[in-house]
Amino acid sequence: MTLLTILFDGVAYGMLLFVLACGLAVTLGLMNFVNLAHGAFAMAGGYVCAVLVNRSGLPFFAALPIAFLVSAAVGALLERTLYRHLYSRSHLDQVLFTIGLVFMSVTAVDYFMGSSQIFIHLPDYLQGQIDIFGLGVGRYRLMIIVICGLLTVALQLTLAKTRFGSRLRAAVDDPRAASGLGINVPQVFALTFAFGCGLAGLGGALGAEILGLDPYFPLKFMIYFLIVVTVGGSSSITGPFLASLLLGIGDVAGKYYVPKLGAFVIYTMMIVILIWRPNGLFGRSAAR
Amino acid sequence: MTANSTTHPEIGLLAMQRARWRWPELLFWLVALSAVFLFPNRYLILTEIAWLALFALSLDLILGYAGIVSLGHAAFFGFGGYAAGLLALHGIVTEPVLALLVAGLAAMALGFVTSFLVMRGSDLTRLMVTLGIALLLRELANRFSNITGGSDGLQGIEMQPILGLYSFDIFGKVGFIYCLAVLFVLFLLARRIVNSPFGLSLRAIRNNPLRASAIGIPVNRRLIAIYTIAAFYAGVAGALSTQTTALASLDGFAFDRSADLMLVLIIGGTGYLYGGLIGAFIFKLLQELFSTLTPQYWQFWIGLVLVVIVLIGRERMQRWALYVPRLIMRKFGGAKTPALLPEGDAP
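^ Those are the sequences you sent over. The predicted structure of the assembly is below.
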C-alpha cells in the first residue's frame, strides 16, 4: 500500500463523508439546528437500497435515486411534523429530541431488519481494481469519487448561483427580513432539510460497502458527521468539504500507519482543532 | 466558601435561608432508607438507582446549576469505574471506601484537566468537545487491552469488607446500604455547595454569564471549580457501580450512558438537587417496565419518552408535575416554596 493508495482511499472516504454530512452542514452549520439524528436518514437510505437490490433484484444504479427520494420524503415528513417546532429551542432541547429519534430509529431498524450487518450486492463491473498509471485503483472507490465530486460541484453551484441558493442564504442570515421580502422561509427550510436528508440517504446507500450497514450506524457515525461540520465551520460548504477530505485522509492514514490507536487519531484531531479554533477551521469568528 | 460571604452579608443570609431543611426532604430520605426493609428482593435495582442518582446529581451540578451542557459526562463515570476496578484487581487499595475516594479523586483530576478544554467556545463546541473526550477515553480503554481488558472489561473484581467490617453479600443488601450512604453523604455536600455563595454565583452565571462577569464573578474560575467537583461525583458513581457489580466495562464510557443520564435529569428536572434522584428512580422503573415488555427493544420507548418530553416542553411538564404537590403544600405546609421543589428563577 503506497502513499498514493492511501491518499486515493482517503479522498474517496472523505468525499463519501462529505455527501453524508453536507445535509447536516446545512442544518447545523447554516440553520443552527443540532440534528444528531442525521445519521438515521443515512441509514434509512442504506437499508432502502439494500432491500431493493438484494430482495427485489433492482439494479444498483436504479436503487440509488430511490434511496435518495425515500430519505428525502421521510426527512420532509419529519421536518413538517416535528423538527420545525424546535428551530427556536435551545441546543439542549434539540440534542435531547434528536437523541430520542436516534434511539427509536436504531431499535426500529433492529426490529424490522435484524441486528447483523448487511451488505449490498454490487454489480460485477464495480468490483475489483483497475490499473491507472501502475496504481491499483478500486473501481467502487473511483465511482464514489466521481459521483460525490459531481454532487459537490452541483451543490456548490446551487448554493452560490441559483435563485433557490440565494433565497436559502437570505432565509438563514435573517429569517424576518427574508420573509419580509416575500421569501417563504418555512418552505425554503423544509426543502433544504429534505434535500439534506436525501443526500444523506444517498450517501448511506453509497457508503454501505465501505462503512458497513447495521442498526447502530447512526450512533457509530454521528461523531464523524459532527466533526465534519464543527471542524469545517459554518460559513460555507467549502469548509465542511475540506474538513471531510482532511478527516477521510487522516482516518485512512491513521488506520494504516498506527492501527493500534484506531479512531483515537480522529477524536484527537477534532479536540485540538476545536480548542485552537472554537468556530471551526473555516468558520466566521462570530458564529450565530 | 469564598470571600463573597464576608463581603456581602446579605448573600450569606440568603444562602443560610435556602440551606434550612424542610420536612419533605426528611420524608424523602426516610422513604429511601425504608426501601431497605420494604423491597428485600430488589436490592440490585435499588443499588443501580442509588449510583445512577449520584451520577445524575453530578450532571445536575454542571448543567442545572452552572448551565454547562455536556454530552460526555460518561467520561468521568467510566474513568472512576476503571480506577476502582484496577485498584481492587491489583490489590493497591482494597478497602472499598478508600478506593472510592481514590477513584473519585482520579476522575476529579481528569475533570480539572479537561475543564480547560470545555471552557472554550459556544454551547455547541462544548457538546462536541465533551463528547469527543468521552469517545477518546473509550477508544483508549479499548486499545490498551493489556491494562483495561479491552472489550471484555475488567472482570472478577473482588471487594474487601467495607471499612473492614461489612462484607458484600450475594443479595446486595450491604451494597445497597453502602451506595445509599455514599449518596446521602455526597448529597449533603452538594446541598452545602449549591446553597453557598459559590453556588448562588453559579446560578448567576447560568442565567447570564455576561452580566455575572460584569458584577465581578470570576466566571471561568467558578465553572472550572464546579466542573471539577462534578467530575469527582461522577467518578464516585462509576466506582460504586464497579464495586457493586464487580465489573468495569467499555459501556462506562459509551455515548448511550451520557444520553441516558441526560434523560434521567430531564425526567426529574434540572436545577434542583432532588431532580436527579427522582429522575433516576423513574428512569430505572421505566427501563424495567419496558425491558420486561419488549426485552430487546426497550431503547425505542426510552427514545420515545425523550421525544415526547421535548415536544411537550420541560417547563410545562414541570408545572404539571408540581401541580399536585403545590396544592398539598398550600393546604398543609407553612412554607410557600417547599425545598423539594425547584425554586423558580426570577421572572
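The interface with chain A takes residues 63, 69, 71, 117, 120-125, 127-129, 131-133, 135-136, 139-140, 142-143, 255-256, 259, 262-263, 266, 296-300, 302-307, 309-311, 314 of chain B (CB under 8 Å). DSSP finds 16 helices and no strands in chain B.

Shout if you want it in another format.
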